[in-house]
Amino acid sequence: MSAASQPAAGTCRYEGISVVTVDQVPARRLSTEHDTWARQSPERNETWSRAEQFLAVAGTALIAMRVQLTPQLLTAGDLMVIATFPLWFPVTKRYLGTRTWLFLGLLCIPVGLVLSTLNAVDHQIRLGTSATSTILLLSLLFSVGFMLWAKERLSQGALVASFGLGLLLGISTTSALFSTNPWKFGYSLPVSILALGLAQMSKRRGSELLVAIALCIVSTLTDARSAFALFLLTAALLAWQMRPKVSSRKGSAFRAVAGIGIIAVVVYNLGQALILDGFLGKATQQRTVQQISDSGSLILGGRPEIAATANLMRVNPLGFGSGTIPNYNDIRAAKQGMAYIGYDPNNGYVEKWMFGHGYALHSTFGDLWAIYGFVGLVFVGFMLALVLRRLGTALVARAASGALIFASALTMWNIFFAPFYSGLRMLILVMALALIAKPAPPPDPLARPRRRYWPVN
Fold first, then answer.
1. Domain contains 19
2. What are the tens digits of pLDDT across the range 397-417?
3. 33 domain residue, yes or no
């Protein structure tokens, strides 16, 4: 090769393309390219950032609104999270336990179909019921994924406030329960989440405490026993975090969770005593006395479906499947369990509401066990463990917000005492708050910096 045909210093040839290292690029050319990037990039990045923040707020509110589009409970928010799947799915890799949780949730779907096939011998199978169960589960999984993406574009307070705004816009005023008590069956949860989110945005723990106390007082005036207990617990834990620090010893999440259990027991007994003394009104007092006298416990008296679930698990521990319709033997087993604790099941409630369109066992763990069997229980247990871990670590660091405490407490209540469908929106919110990002790996001091190349024209 002649000297004229050899490449100049600082260049090399690769498959017929001449390139030059960054060190050999003329300073004037580098300066011009850098100046062009510096003039264009900040403005373009700011516009894109604002667009992402708008999508995060609007998408979060749309998820909370749950604008139903089909009889199978497909919502506008579901379509939005499906359309943005390529945007948010890579984000889930950055959060501890998220991919495992998603895998368990997706595994439930084929398990539910298999269980329906096994129970088809003596049960009726409805494809519409199976489709509804599948849509609700996918809605939970995909919505949490989107909100993890939104959490990286918004502050936690703004995320909670956006969700509360969506809840408020999605209130249904046409239900029979709303007309009997608009606050308890309509405005209570949306206003609570919105107020706690706005208080968190103020970055003042005292503001969150005042909001929790105010909501606790409102609950006492509106016959909302469970809400009263949850806000009392939230206020107690917020106040506990504001105590003076007298020791430098680092606490543990396990001890924090154990402390939550102790405080919860104290709040339960205190709340029950206040109710029995008439603090929440005469009607609430009489209903509570009757429930305790019937079953010996306020919880069992108010949620006799627990006894029905326990007896169904004894009779058919594998579960029933996503499209299975209860038969006479299932209804009889549920009634036997409820009668065992002193509840009269022969009032039409069991046939019409619990088993009229599937298995509605008035608890998240009961509903998911009936539909997905043992895998459903593992899915719920893993979800509960993630929530408790996040709440415990936040309390140890004195960084637990009122929204996190309330949402976690309400979710734990819903897992045992509320249907999966009615507790779905709070599950979405609490999982978005509970999942924490993985720690960034430390930089490798021995790693060589990568050299950049520009093509030679």
1. no
2. 889 999 999 999 999 889 988
3. no
Distance CA 439, CA 441 (A): 6
- Residue 251 C-beta-side C-alpha neighbours within 13 Å: 18
Question: Per the structure block, which two tokens stand in for 43?
Answer: 């403005």
Decide if 188 is inside a domain. Answer: yes
Other Cβ atoms less than 10 A from the Cβ of 405: the count is 26
> What count of other Cβ atoms lies within 10 Å of the Cβ of residue 347?
9
- What local confidence, expressed as pLDDT, does residue 38 receive? 42
In terms of pLDDT, which residue wins out, 441 or 162? Answer: 162
The pair of three-digit structure tokens given for residue 383, joined into one six-digit string: 């979800």
Q: Decide: helix, strand or coil at residue 359.
A: coil
Q: Residue 254: name the closest of 124, 391, 145, 56 by CA.
A: 391
The per-residue pLDDT of the chain, averaged, comes to 82
Of 107, 140, 141, 113, whose CA–CA distance to 127 is shortest? 113
What's the order of all strands across the beta sheet hosting 453-455?
A: 11-14, 17-21, 453-455
| Alpha-carbon distances, residue 326 vs 224, 333, 345, 361 (angstroms) | 32, 11, 16, 12
pTM of structure = 0.81
Number of domains in the chain: 1
Phi-psi region for residue 321, left (φ > 0), alpha (ψ -120 to 50) or beta? left
Examine residue 10 and state whether it is found in any structural domain, yes or no. Answer: no
Q: Tokens 């593992």: give the residue.
A: 378
Classify burial at 208, counting beta carbons within 10 Å of its beta carbon; exposed 0-12, middle 13-18, buried 19 or more. buried
Containing structural domain, residue 188: 53-438
68, β-bridge pairs = 75
